[in-house]
Amino acid sequence: SFDPGMAGLGNHTINYTYTNGNGCSNTASSQVLVSDCPSYTTLNLTIFLEGNYIGTGTMRATKFDLGLSADPTATDDITVNLWSASNLSNQNPDHTIITLLHTDGTAGMQFPLSVSGNEFYIAIKHRNSMETWSKIPVSFTSNTSYDFSNALSKAYDDGVNPPMASMGGSVFAIYGADVNQDGTVDGGDANEIEISANNFDYGYNSADANGDGETGGQDANIVEINANLFLFYARPY
Question: Helix or strand or coil: residue 197?
């Protein structure tokens, strides 16, 4: 009788000894590996937010700075949606999770084990950034990594504009200042920033496009730059 739970992870030697009614005995040994069978699929992302980016592969620790997280690397929450190519016409994604994005652009999350062995588009949503999708469906294993930040070819594009903003040094970030989350950056976003600035809003609010805790001219600058590009979110449907 061998209980892997009591034995613990790793290699174990099982010895079995048998003696029959005539007093004859024999022994057999076998090596057994006890491993941790995962019940989930891990996705590790690297992605930067244009508004929060401060250079050299780093973003502001907005949630930490505002006292909303005890993690000194906490930039903001993002929503990660997985869409299979066959279900793009559905109203809702196949899988969705909200996770913390760190100052170095990394975010780790766990989806059901059933995700492994299948392909999904990865779609990123953030409270005041442009929704951004992976260029093609990503093949998932039990531990999958995808880096949006190292090439424009990693993101789905509309055939007109670059799918992400260039931050210099071959680093790319998803466009910021879609304050009202209508899929584009335009006067509607500028109006919300103006109203928030006139109210001297401070803290965690969507009109704070650069994540510095206050709404003002720097947030308006992001809107102006991106509005001149006539941006609109790009999806594969």
Answer: helix
The residue-averaged pLDDT of 173-180 equals: 97
Token representation of residue 109: 């999350």
Res 214 pLDDT > 80: yes
The amino acid sitting at 69 is S
> What is the spatial distance between Cα 102 and Cα 108, in angstroms, rounded to a whole number?
9
Q: Within 13 A of 97's CA, how many CA atoms are on the CB side?
A: 17
Cα separation, 156 vs 133, whole angstroms: 5
Q: Look up residue 80 and give its amino acid.
A: V
Task: Kindly report the number of other CB atoms within 10 A of residue 100's CB atom.
Answer: 17
Cβ atoms within 10 Å of 43's Cβ, excluding its own: 24
The first and second tokens of residue 73, run together, are 């690397």
β-bridge partners, 134: 155
What span, in angstroms and rounded, lies between the C-alpha atoms of 59 and 103? 5
Q: Which residues are paired to 125 by β-bridges?
A: 79
pTM for the whole structure: 0.83
Q: pLDDT band for position 16 (50/70/90)?
A: confident
pLDDT tens by residue, 92-146:
999 999 999 999 999 999 999 999 999 999 999 999 999 999 999 999 999 999 9
